[in-house]
Design goal:
single chain; about 180 residues; alpha+beta; Rieske Iron-sulfur Protein; 2 domains; four-stranded antiparallel beta sheet; three-stranded antiparallel beta sheet; 10 strands; elongated
């Protein structure tokens, strides 16, 4: 038969109660002190809100580029003209430092919409739209020229402008992220 660890044998004493109560309060106090340290590691609500962004494309005119914010970065949404689409498709891949066909950078059936992270792949500057030698994007900081598909054509940038994950929720709504 198991024996009790109390002082007087079978009955718990006040001292036993105090040990248990002190231990329980210490555990609660340690948990209460640790909670703010653990909770501060959660992402900020503003970051969670920017995990995806929905953009209404209905007011965007053909030939216009709008900028939205996603995950703290600018995202360019360009409503390309037929001429811009044709120029992007006609570019030989051998002329590109980072070869990628135009149809790999847009969604099938929605070729008029180009969605790009608006950060230069050289040093992280923000390029300007409808500028540069190829009338796509131009980074004035160091002279990188991108075409109407956001592909690097000239300058120090090593890669094309990034295409973020996106999908069309409807004909006039795009969800980025």
């Amino acid at each position: 038969m198991a024996k009790s660890t109390t002082m007087n044998g079978d009955q718990p004493t006040r001292r036993d109660f105090l040990y248990i109560a002190t231990g329980a309060m210490g555990a609660v106090g340690a948990a209460a002190a640790a909670w703010p340290l653990i909770h501060q590691m959660n992402p900020d609500a503003s970051v969670q809100a920017l995990a995806s962004a929905e953009v209404d494309l209905s007011p965007v005119q053909e030939g216009q580029i709008i900028t939205v914010k996603w995950r703290g970065k600018p995202v360019f949404i360009a409503h390309r003209t037929k001429k811009e689409i044709e120029e992007a498709k006609a570019t030989p891949l051998r002329d590109l430092p980072d070869p990628q066909p135009d149809d790999a950078r847009v969604k099938k059936g929605k070729e008029q919409w180009l969605v790009l992270v608006g950060v230069c792949t050289h040093l992280g500057c923000v390029p300007l739209g409808h500028q540069g030698d190829y009338k796509g994007f131009f980074c004035p900081c160091h002279g990188s020229h991108y075409d109407t598909s956001g592909r690097i054509r000239k300058g120090p940038a090593p890669l094309n402008l990034e295409v973020p994950p996106y999908e069309f929720a409807s004909d006039t709504m795009v969800r980025i992220g």
